[in-house]
Every structure is written in C-alpha cells, then in structure tokens.
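Researcher: Please translate sequence to structure tokens.
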Amino acid sequence: MNLIKNDTLFEIVSGCKKHNSTAQHRLYQIYAKRMTALCQRYCNDYETARDLMHDGFIRIFESIENYDDKGTFEAWLKKIFVNICIDNLRKIDVLRMPIEVESLENFVADTQPDFSEKTDIEQIMNAIAQLPNVARTIFNMYNIDGYSIDEIAQKLNMTSTAVRTQHSRAKQKLQEMLKEIGIGR
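Model: Translation complete:
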C-alpha cells in the first residue's frame, strides 16, 4: 500500500537531502507508525520500539544523502531500521545468548501452516512475538523483511547452517503456537 505518489516522495526525499525540516517532518509522519511496527517485531517492547524508531530516523536524516534512488526508498529505509534493531539486540547481548535446548525440543515437524482468509493477523504477530529472541529475529528478517539466509548469517555473525536451523525451529514453534489457538493445521 503506497500512501504517497512517487513524485511526492521524490520531493520529500529531495527536501530531506537539503535538511529541510518540513520535508523531514513529512517523512516522519508517513513512515513513523510502520517503522515502529517493524522495530517492535524485533524488540517485542513498544517503548523500546519507539526509541529505536526515533534512533532510526536520526540515522536516516544523517545519511539520506547516501540514498541514490536505486531501488525503492522504502526498502532502503527498512534496511536501516532493521540494522538499528540488530544493533540494539547486539548491545543488549541477545544475539550472543545460548539457545535453550529444552524450548527447542518441543518443536513439531517442519510443515507450512494452512492459513485461511479469516486468519487474525494480530494473533499471528502475537505468536511471533512469543518466539525466543534469536528465533524471532531470524524469522522476521527472512519471512517479513526479505533477507536471504546468507545475509542474515552475515548480519548476525552466525553460520548459514545455524541460521537455517534457527529459522526452521522458529517456523515449527510458530506452527505449534498457531495450532494451539486454532490457526493452521
């Protein structure tokens, strides 16, 4: 869903590159809620997500001159916000914490859930939020933000095999949680 026309976005981005506060405020208004939601998927806490969203916009405004109009602006923006979230997880040492083996032993076989059109997105997002931190981060990066396994491995300083394993376990755990609430098979 595109909230603004491309020519208007081009004007806003051009204004931001000139440090125009009106353009910066408009960009913030357009993307603040979506970027807060993106951040909340990674940190699982609304107040922290708001802080990360603000940090992300500071970084956006400091580096917007580097946006070269190749690819969509929103993809560039999301990449910066995901990096902010990953930096935060590293800072609080979440990505270095060992995975609890006991919580992973309960995972079911790796099958795709069968979602109906009436699936409640809020229930799915709540289930994702309950995943262990590393599994949730990998699930979000791969399934929602479109990173490849190799890109995730590089960003999280993990092997591709470890990322694949964590992603598989995250999907399994998510399927189990969704099955318990009557979503999927």
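Researcher: Any highlights?
Model: The chain has two domains: 6-91, 98-180.
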